[in-house]
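Now for one protein, fold included:
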Amino acid sequence: MSVENSSVIDLISTKDNIVTLTISDHLEWDAENHFELLEAKLNSYIDVLDNQSIYELYPDSVGKELAIRVVFKYKPDKEGEKFLNSISEIFETLPYNFSYYTL
């Protein structure tokens, strides 16, 4: 399970009435196609939430707040931060929370 496989949800967790789908990103920021892979994975997660298949995959999510989080192995470089800021802006238009952090 990783950012490289957009058809798999890496982790689903629940805390304080929030269901979080987590992306595990182990790639270095200069890795080829990193932005494209991350974008594809994020879009896949958004699709799972938008089409409500999350409720079939994880019935305990019904009635709870939904969120997507990315956990990075490597700290984002300047271009990575720029990319993540644009992603955060997109999420402001969506009914889901978005967050990320580096281990």
In short: The mean pLDDT is 95. The domain at 11-102 is CATH 3.30.750 (Transcription Regulator spoIIAA). Helices lie at 34-50, 54-57, 78-91. The chain is about 35% helix and 25% strand.
